[in-house]
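Entry type: protein chain
Record version: 2
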Amino acid sequence: MSLLLKNALLLDVATGDYTEADLRCADGRIAETGHGLTAPDDTRVIDLAGARVVPGLIDAHVHVTASTANLGTLGSMSPSYVAAHSARIMSDMLSRGFTTVRDASGADFGLADAQAEGLVRGPRLLFCGKGLSQTGGHADFRGRGEHLKDDHPCCAGVGRVADGVDAVRAAARDELRKGAHHIKMMASGGVASPTDRIDSTQYSMDELRAAVEEAEAANRYVAAHAYTARAVNRALEAGVRSIEHGNLIDDTSVELFLKHDAFLVPTLVTYWALKEEGREFGLPERSWRKVDEVLDAGLAALDRAARGGVRLAYGTDLLGGMHRHQNQEFRLRAEVQRPLDVLRAATTGAAELVGLAGEIGTLAVGAHADLVVLDGDPLADISVLADPKHVRHVIQAGTLV
Protein backbone atom coordinates (compact mmCIF):
# COMPACT_ATOMS: atom_id res chain seq x y z
CA MET A 1 0.00 0.00 0.00
CA SER A 2 1.42 3.37 -1.03
CA LEU A 3 0.42 6.96 -0.28
CA LEU A 4 1.82 10.09 -1.90
CA LEU A 5 1.41 13.53 -0.34
CA LYS A 6 2.04 16.29 -2.89
CA ASN A 7 2.97 19.92 -2.25
CA ALA A 8 3.48 19.68 1.51
CA LEU A 9 5.40 21.81 3.96
CA LEU A 10 7.35 19.20 5.93
CA LEU A 11 8.59 20.17 9.40
CA ASP A 12 12.02 19.06 10.58
CA VAL A 13 11.37 19.08 14.33
CA ALA A 14 15.10 19.05 15.12
CA THR A 15 15.83 22.29 13.26
CA GLY A 16 12.40 23.92 13.25
CA ASP A 17 12.57 24.41 9.48
CA TYR A 18 9.89 23.66 6.88
CA THR A 19 10.75 22.19 3.48
CA GLU A 20 8.46 22.34 0.46
CA ALA A 21 8.35 18.77 -0.84
CA ASP A 22 6.34 15.68 -1.66
CA LEU A 23 6.37 12.69 0.70
CA ARG A 24 5.71 9.07 -0.26
CA CYS A 25 4.78 6.29 2.17
CA ALA A 26 5.17 2.60 1.34
CA ASP A 27 4.85 -0.52 3.48
CA GLY A 28 4.13 1.56 6.55
CA ARG A 29 7.33 3.61 6.31
CA ILE A 30 8.36 6.96 4.85
CA ALA A 31 9.88 5.85 1.54
CA GLU A 32 11.13 9.14 0.10
CA THR A 33 10.75 12.89 0.14
CA GLY A 34 11.55 15.36 -2.60
CA HIS A 35 10.15 17.35 -5.51
CA GLY A 36 8.04 15.88 -8.30
CA LEU A 37 7.82 12.41 -6.80
CA THR A 38 6.02 9.70 -8.72
CA ALA A 39 4.54 6.47 -7.41
CA PRO A 40 3.04 3.16 -8.60
CA ASP A 41 -0.37 3.18 -10.27
CA ASP A 42 -2.24 1.94 -7.17
CA THR A 43 -0.88 4.77 -5.02
CA ARG A 44 -3.35 7.12 -3.36
CA VAL A 45 -2.35 10.73 -4.09
CA ILE A 46 -3.39 13.69 -1.91
CA ASP A 47 -2.50 17.26 -2.91
CA LEU A 48 -1.96 19.18 0.32
CA ALA A 49 -1.64 22.55 -1.44
CA GLY A 50 0.98 23.82 0.98
CA ALA A 51 -0.46 22.45 4.22
CA ARG A 52 1.97 21.79 7.04
CA VAL A 53 2.93 18.25 7.98
CA VAL A 54 4.38 17.27 11.38
CA PRO A 55 5.33 13.87 12.76
CA GLY A 56 2.60 11.82 14.44
CA LEU A 57 2.22 13.03 18.03
CA ILE A 58 3.34 10.94 21.01
CA ASP A 59 1.69 11.15 24.44
CA ALA A 60 4.07 9.58 26.95
CA HIS A 61 1.63 9.43 29.88
CA VAL A 62 -1.88 8.14 29.28
CA HIS A 63 -4.27 5.70 30.93
CA VAL A 64 -6.35 4.25 28.11
CA THR A 65 -8.33 2.03 30.50
CA ALA A 66 -9.32 4.97 32.74
CA SER A 67 -12.96 5.43 31.73
CA THR A 68 -13.55 7.07 35.13
CA ALA A 69 -11.54 9.31 37.43
CA ASN A 70 -12.41 6.96 40.29
CA LEU A 71 -9.57 4.53 39.50
CA GLY A 72 -10.38 2.36 42.48
CA THR A 73 -13.56 1.12 40.80
CA LEU A 74 -11.81 -0.28 37.71
CA GLY A 75 -10.78 -3.47 39.48
CA SER A 76 -14.40 -4.47 40.01
CA MET A 77 -15.41 -3.88 36.39
CA SER A 78 -15.59 -6.62 33.78
CA PRO A 79 -12.34 -6.64 31.78
CA SER A 80 -14.37 -6.80 28.57
CA TYR A 81 -16.33 -3.70 29.60
CA VAL A 82 -13.10 -1.85 30.38
CA ALA A 83 -11.67 -2.93 27.01
CA ALA A 84 -14.72 -1.57 25.20
CA HIS A 85 -14.23 1.81 26.87
CA SER A 86 -10.51 1.66 26.06
CA ALA A 87 -11.24 1.10 22.37
CA ARG A 88 -13.29 4.28 22.24
CA ILE A 89 -10.69 6.27 24.19
CA MET A 90 -7.88 5.08 21.91
CA SER A 91 -9.84 5.83 18.74
CA ASP A 92 -10.42 9.40 19.89
CA MET A 93 -6.71 9.81 20.70
CA LEU A 94 -5.79 8.81 17.15
CA SER A 95 -8.26 11.31 15.72
CA ARG A 96 -6.55 14.05 17.76
CA GLY A 97 -3.22 13.28 16.04
CA PHE A 98 -1.62 10.94 18.58
CA THR A 99 -0.22 7.98 16.66
CA THR A 100 1.77 6.51 19.59
CA VAL A 101 1.01 6.56 23.32
CA ARG A 102 2.81 5.22 26.37
CA ASP A 103 0.35 3.86 28.91
CA ALA A 104 1.41 4.60 32.47
CA SER A 105 -0.49 1.67 34.05
CA GLY A 106 -3.69 -0.17 33.24
CA ALA A 107 -3.26 -1.25 29.61
CA ASP A 108 -1.94 -4.74 28.90
CA PHE A 109 -0.67 -6.91 26.09
CA GLY A 110 -4.21 -7.70 24.97
CA LEU A 111 -4.99 -4.09 24.08
CA ALA A 112 -1.56 -3.62 22.49
CA ASP A 113 -1.98 -6.76 20.38
CA ALA A 114 -5.52 -5.79 19.38
CA GLN A 115 -4.30 -2.40 18.14
CA ALA A 116 -1.34 -3.91 16.30
CA GLU A 117 -3.61 -6.43 14.55
CA GLY A 118 -6.15 -3.78 13.55
CA LEU A 119 -8.89 -5.01 15.87
CA VAL A 120 -8.87 -1.69 17.74
CA ARG A 121 -8.49 1.70 16.06
CA GLY A 122 -5.98 3.74 18.01
CA PRO A 123 -2.38 4.78 18.53
CA ARG A 124 0.51 2.34 18.82
CA LEU A 125 0.34 1.31 22.48
CA LEU A 126 3.43 0.99 24.69
CA PHE A 127 2.22 -0.60 27.94
CA CYS A 128 3.56 -1.39 31.41
CA GLY A 129 0.73 -3.56 32.71
CA LYS A 130 -0.01 -2.70 36.31
CA GLY A 131 1.94 -0.11 38.26
CA LEU A 132 3.80 -1.24 41.37
CA SER A 133 2.69 0.26 44.68
CA GLN A 134 3.62 -0.28 48.29
CA THR A 135 0.86 -0.95 50.81
CA GLY A 136 -0.94 2.37 51.29
CA GLY A 137 0.76 3.77 48.20
CA HIS A 138 -0.55 5.60 45.16
CA ALA A 139 -1.95 2.47 43.46
CA ASP A 140 -3.45 0.98 46.62
CA PHE A 141 -7.06 2.09 46.27
CA ARG A 142 -8.46 0.44 49.38
CA GLY A 143 -10.19 2.60 51.92
CA ARG A 144 -8.85 2.52 55.48
CA GLY A 145 -11.26 -0.19 56.52
CA GLU A 146 -10.74 -2.52 53.56
CA HIS A 147 -8.50 -5.58 53.52
CA LEU A 148 -6.36 -6.60 50.56
CA LYS A 149 -8.42 -8.52 48.02
CA ASP A 150 -6.96 -11.51 46.21
CA ASP A 151 -7.37 -9.96 42.75
CA HIS A 152 -7.06 -12.28 39.80
CA PRO A 153 -4.24 -11.03 37.52
CA CYS A 154 -6.72 -10.60 34.66
CA CYS A 155 -8.86 -8.15 36.65
CA ALA A 156 -8.89 -4.61 35.33
CA GLY A 157 -7.10 -1.98 37.38
CA VAL A 158 -4.04 0.24 37.27
CA GLY A 159 -1.92 -1.14 40.11
CA ARG A 160 -0.68 -4.07 42.14
CA VAL A 161 0.66 -4.01 45.69
CA ALA A 162 4.17 -5.39 46.24
CA ASP A 163 6.09 -4.90 49.50
CA GLY A 164 9.73 -5.75 50.06
CA VAL A 165 12.61 -6.31 47.66
CA ASP A 166 11.70 -9.89 46.79
CA ALA A 167 8.06 -9.05 46.11
CA VAL A 168 9.03 -6.03 43.99
CA ARG A 169 11.41 -8.17 41.94
CA ALA A 170 8.73 -10.80 41.41
CA ALA A 171 6.13 -8.21 40.40
CA ALA A 172 8.52 -6.49 37.98
CA ARG A 173 9.51 -9.83 36.46
CA ASP A 174 5.85 -10.77 36.10
CA GLU A 175 4.99 -7.58 34.19
CA LEU A 176 8.09 -8.04 32.02
CA ARG A 177 7.05 -11.64 31.38
CA LYS A 178 3.80 -10.31 29.94
CA GLY A 179 5.69 -8.02 27.57
CA ALA A 180 5.83 -4.74 29.49
CA HIS A 181 7.60 -2.00 27.57
CA HIS A 182 8.55 -0.36 30.88
CA ILE A 183 7.90 -0.76 34.61
CA LYS A 184 5.84 1.83 36.47
CA MET A 185 6.50 2.49 40.16
CA MET A 186 4.70 4.75 42.61
CA ALA A 187 7.49 6.66 44.36
CA SER A 188 5.31 9.24 46.12
CA GLY A 189 1.75 9.93 47.13
CA GLY A 190 -0.80 11.19 44.63
CA VAL A 191 -4.16 12.80 43.98
CA ALA A 192 -6.27 9.77 43.05
CA SER A 193 -5.25 7.47 45.92
CA PRO A 194 -7.34 7.51 49.12
CA THR A 195 -4.93 6.95 52.03
CA ASP A 196 -1.58 8.60 51.21
CA ARG A 197 -0.23 12.13 51.39
CA ILE A 198 1.07 13.80 48.23
CA ASP A 199 4.24 14.80 50.10
CA SER A 200 5.06 11.22 51.19
CA THR A 201 7.88 9.18 49.74
CA GLN A 202 7.05 5.61 48.79
CA TYR A 203 9.22 2.50 48.45
CA SER A 204 12.62 2.12 50.07
CA MET A 205 15.76 2.76 48.07
CA ASP A 206 16.43 -0.98 47.97
CA GLU A 207 12.95 -1.63 46.54
CA LEU A 208 13.35 1.09 43.93
CA ARG A 209 16.75 -0.24 42.89
CA ALA A 210 15.40 -3.79 42.70
CA ALA A 211 12.83 -2.75 40.09
CA VAL A 212 15.44 -0.77 38.16
CA GLU A 213 17.77 -3.79 38.14
CA GLU A 214 15.04 -6.08 36.83
CA ALA A 215 14.01 -3.62 34.12
CA GLU A 216 17.60 -3.07 33.01
CA ALA A 217 18.21 -6.83 32.92
CA ALA A 218 15.37 -7.04 30.38
CA ASN A 219 16.63 -3.97 28.45
CA ARG A 220 13.67 -1.99 29.72
CA TYR A 221 13.41 0.91 32.17
CA VAL A 222 11.42 2.26 35.13
CA ALA A 223 9.06 5.23 35.08
CA ALA A 224 8.28 6.63 38.52
CA HIS A 225 5.28 8.63 39.71
CA ALA A 226 6.69 11.34 42.01
CA TYR A 227 5.80 14.89 42.99
CA THR A 228 8.08 16.38 45.63
CA ALA A 229 11.79 17.02 45.18
CA ARG A 230 12.47 14.53 47.98
CA ALA A 231 10.60 11.75 46.17
CA VAL A 232 11.91 12.69 42.73
CA ASN A 233 15.51 12.83 43.88
CA ARG A 234 15.34 9.41 45.54
CA ALA A 235 13.93 7.87 42.37
CA LEU A 236 16.59 9.47 40.19
CA GLU A 237 19.35 8.27 42.50
CA ALA A 238 17.90 4.75 42.23
CA GLY A 239 18.26 4.84 38.44
CA VAL A 240 14.73 5.58 37.26
CA ARG A 241 14.63 6.76 33.62
CA SER A 242 11.56 8.99 33.70
CA ILE A 243 9.80 10.99 36.38
CA GLU A 244 6.07 11.37 35.88
CA HIS A 245 4.60 14.71 37.05
CA GLY A 246 7.46 16.18 39.15
CA ASN A 247 5.45 19.29 40.06
CA LEU A 248 7.49 20.11 43.16
CA ILE A 249 11.09 19.61 41.95
CA ASP A 250 13.96 21.85 43.05
CA ASP A 251 17.38 22.80 41.66
CA THR A 252 18.93 19.64 43.08
CA SER A 253 16.40 17.64 41.09
CA VAL A 254 17.51 19.39 37.89
CA GLU A 255 21.13 18.47 38.63
CA LEU A 256 20.14 14.83 39.15
CA PHE A 257 18.11 14.70 35.93
CA LEU A 258 21.20 15.85 34.05
CA LYS A 259 23.55 13.54 35.94
CA HIS A 260 21.43 10.45 35.23
CA ASP A 261 20.29 11.52 31.73
CA ALA A 262 16.70 11.06 32.86
CA PHE A 263 13.45 12.50 31.49
CA LEU A 264 10.71 14.59 33.08
CA VAL A 265 7.14 13.99 31.88
CA PRO A 266 5.00 16.87 33.21
CA THR A 267 1.22 16.38 33.01
CA LEU A 268 -0.14 19.87 33.53
CA VAL A 269 -3.48 19.42 31.82
CA THR A 270 -4.73 16.72 34.18
CA TYR A 271 -4.67 19.07 37.20
CA TRP A 272 -6.44 21.80 35.24
CA ALA A 273 -9.08 19.26 34.15
CA LEU A 274 -9.41 17.58 37.57
CA LYS A 275 -10.01 20.94 39.22
CA GLU A 276 -12.62 21.94 36.66
CA GLU A 277 -14.36 18.62 35.99
CA GLY A 278 -12.88 15.90 38.21
CA ARG A 279 -15.87 15.41 40.50
CA GLU A 280 -18.21 15.32 37.50
CA PHE A 281 -16.29 12.34 36.15
CA GLY A 282 -15.97 10.35 39.35
CA LEU A 283 -13.05 11.82 41.28
CA PRO A 284 -13.82 11.35 45.00
CA GLU A 285 -14.12 14.53 47.05
CA ARG A 286 -11.11 13.68 49.23
CA SER A 287 -8.96 13.36 46.08
CA TRP A 288 -10.36 16.56 44.54
CA ARG A 289 -9.23 18.49 47.62
CA LYS A 290 -5.62 17.37 46.95
CA VAL A 291 -5.45 18.94 43.48
CA ASP A 292 -4.51 22.43 44.66
CA GLU A 293 -1.30 21.08 46.20
CA VAL A 294 0.15 20.38 42.76
CA LEU A 295 -1.90 22.52 40.33
CA ASP A 296 -0.05 25.84 40.62
CA ALA A 297 3.43 24.31 40.99
CA GLY A 298 3.40 22.36 37.73
CA LEU A 299 4.10 25.23 35.35
CA ALA A 300 6.93 26.53 37.54
CA ALA A 301 8.46 23.05 37.62
CA LEU A 302 8.33 22.80 33.82
CA ASP A 303 9.97 26.22 33.49
CA ARG A 304 12.70 25.24 35.97
CA ALA A 305 13.37 21.97 34.14
CA ALA A 306 13.34 23.50 30.65
CA ARG A 307 15.70 26.31 31.60
CA GLY A 308 17.98 23.76 33.25
CA GLY A 309 18.25 21.60 30.14
CA VAL A 310 16.27 18.60 31.42
CA ARG A 311 15.06 16.20 28.71
CA LEU A 312 11.28 16.51 28.41
CA ALA A 313 8.46 14.40 27.02
CA TYR A 314 4.79 15.25 26.51
CA GLY A 315 2.25 13.67 28.86
CA THR A 316 -1.36 14.29 29.86
CA ASP A 317 -2.54 11.69 32.43
CA LEU A 318 -6.22 12.45 31.77
CA LEU A 319 -9.02 10.31 33.20
CA GLY A 320 -12.66 9.60 32.40
CA GLY A 321 -14.48 12.15 30.26
CA MET A 322 -11.49 14.49 30.53
CA HIS A 323 -9.48 12.63 27.84
CA ARG A 324 -10.92 15.08 25.32
CA HIS A 325 -8.57 17.78 26.67
CA GLN A 326 -5.46 15.87 25.51
CA ASN A 327 -4.26 18.61 23.14
CA GLN A 328 -4.76 21.35 25.75
CA GLU A 329 -1.36 20.39 27.22
CA PHE A 330 0.22 22.18 24.24
CA ARG A 331 -1.42 25.45 25.21
CA LEU A 332 -0.49 25.15 28.89
CA ARG A 333 3.18 24.40 28.21
CA ALA A 334 3.41 27.25 25.71
CA GLU A 335 3.01 29.65 28.64
CA VAL A 336 6.67 29.00 29.48
CA GLN A 337 8.08 27.32 26.34
CA ARG A 338 8.30 28.05 22.62
CA PRO A 339 5.77 26.11 20.53
CA LEU A 340 8.65 24.28 18.79
CA ASP A 341 10.00 23.04 22.13
CA VAL A 342 6.58 21.80 23.19
CA LEU A 343 6.21 19.98 19.87
CA ARG A 344 9.65 18.43 20.32
CA ALA A 345 8.50 16.99 23.66
CA ALA A 346 5.59 15.33 21.80
CA THR A 347 7.79 13.98 19.00
CA THR A 348 11.57 13.59 19.22
CA GLY A 349 11.71 13.92 23.01
CA ALA A 350 9.07 11.27 23.66
CA ALA A 351 10.61 9.03 20.98
CA GLU A 352 13.97 9.18 22.76
CA LEU A 353 12.35 8.38 26.10
CA VAL A 354 10.66 5.23 24.80
CA GLY A 355 13.72 4.03 22.90
CA LEU A 356 12.28 4.64 19.42
CA ALA A 357 14.34 7.64 18.27
CA GLY A 358 14.47 7.70 14.49
CA GLU A 359 11.51 5.32 14.30
CA ILE A 360 8.71 7.64 15.42
CA GLY A 361 8.43 11.39 16.06
CA THR A 362 10.26 12.26 12.81
CA LEU A 363 9.59 12.67 9.09
CA ALA A 364 12.95 11.11 8.18
CA VAL A 365 13.07 8.53 5.40
CA GLY A 366 12.83 5.04 6.90
CA ALA A 367 10.78 6.08 9.93
CA HIS A 368 7.27 4.80 10.58
CA ALA A 369 4.91 6.76 8.32
CA ASP A 370 2.99 8.39 11.18
CA LEU A 371 2.17 12.02 10.42
CA VAL A 372 -0.35 14.77 10.96
CA VAL A 373 -1.51 17.32 8.40
CA LEU A 374 -2.48 20.63 9.99
CA ASP A 375 -4.48 23.68 8.98
CA GLY A 376 -2.07 26.40 10.02
CA ASP A 377 1.46 26.81 11.37
CA PRO A 378 1.88 25.34 14.88
CA LEU A 379 5.17 27.19 15.35
CA ALA A 380 3.44 30.54 14.91
CA ASP A 381 0.19 29.68 16.70
CA ILE A 382 0.09 26.96 19.39
CA SER A 383 -3.68 26.65 19.00
CA VAL A 384 -3.04 24.78 15.75
CA LEU A 385 -1.84 21.91 17.98
CA ALA A 386 -3.99 22.69 21.01
CA ASP A 387 -7.31 22.61 19.14
CA PRO A 388 -7.98 19.28 17.37
CA LYS A 389 -10.20 21.08 14.83
CA HIS A 390 -6.97 22.07 13.05
CA VAL A 391 -6.07 18.41 12.40
CA ARG A 392 -6.87 17.91 8.69
CA HIS A 393 -5.49 14.38 8.21
CA VAL A 394 -3.94 11.72 10.44
CA ILE A 395 -1.74 9.13 8.74
CA GLN A 396 -0.66 6.05 10.65
CA ALA A 397 1.71 3.44 9.19
CA GLY A 398 1.24 5.05 5.78
CA THR A 399 -2.55 4.80 5.83
CA LEU A 400 -4.97 7.71 6.02
CA VAL A 401 -6.98 7.03 9.19
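Comment: The chain is about 30% helix and 25% strand.
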